[in-house]
Amino acid sequence: MAVVLALLSALCLAVGTQKQGSAVSDRAHGRLTPRTLAALLRNHRWLLGLGLLGLGTALNVAALGLATVTVVQPIGVVALVVTTLLHARHRRLRINRRTWAAIGLCTAGGAVFVTCAVAATDPAHGISAWAERTVVVMLVVLVCVLGVAAALFRHGLGGTFYVVAAGILYGFVAVLVRLTITRIQGSTGGPLDDVNWLAIGAAAAAAALGGWFVQIAFASGPPDLVIAGLTVIDPMVGVLLGLLVLGEAGPGFSVLTGVLMALAGGVAIVGVAVLSQHHPEVLARRAELAHRDRRAPSRPGP
């Protein structure tokens, strides 16, 4: 059931991402401003995407209530393929070989990483309160650092920064959601007696900041590039937090497993990098900018 819910979540996220991404890119033209966001709040396509993203998130939370982060989160890679196909059809783009190769690297790298993670983690391991507080403190610091960086250097940061930052934030959020659900399910009193409200507050702030970063990334690149970064980085962050901070490493974890996970993660990240350089929409935007530069009148010398 957890796998079915995760697959349905991935489909909702894929369609919602494509709807929102195309709506933002049509209006933002490379830069997202508060005025543009206000206009998007009246855009039916953007609102439909928002609703689908909300439904996908709810399904993902339900899946996390039935299985661990290492099982649920990586299934989101299905959203990458679906989003790519939908966006190519919407923009009438022909997907080139390098784009398909990049998608293959993301999918293969993610699959190997997850396979190793499932074998290396112990889902029955109890999480200590100290470990949970450590994750919360790390997330609070991360939200502050990324928020300040985005505010101070917003004109110099590219779309890749926002995609990576959102993926890291969502990885933390997924872990805290899983921990909160576990606390609710294991409560001996009322369902909210053992809830860590600081963790919920930190997760909500991270989700809000990550959502804003995703909208900025939509304005500067195709939605399938955004979803590629999220589906690669999000589960990796969740798995690494589980292994290194929450102590979920089981007897199956070894040096060889760690090396394989590192190599698989590297392959997936290379796939995202290739996609960011050779996606047909990226190439089209690059050619358009070059054409504008050639047509711009040259300034006379002193």
TrEMBL record:
Q: Which InterPro entries match?
A: Mg_trans_NIPA
UniProt superkingdom: Bacteria
Q: Name one GO molecular function term.
A: magnesium ion transmembrane transporter activity
* Cell compartment(s), UniProt: Membrane
Is Lyase found in the keyword set?
A: no
Which coarse location class describes where this protein primarily resides? membrane
Gene Ontology CC: membrane
Pfam families associated with the record: Mg_trans_NIPA (PF05653)
Q: What membrane topology does the annotation report for this chain?
A: Multi-pass membrane protein
Q: Which UniProt keywords apply?
A: Membrane, Transmembrane, Transmembrane helix
What is the name of the protein in this document?
A: Multidrug DMT transporter permease
Source organism of this protein record: Kocuria sediminis
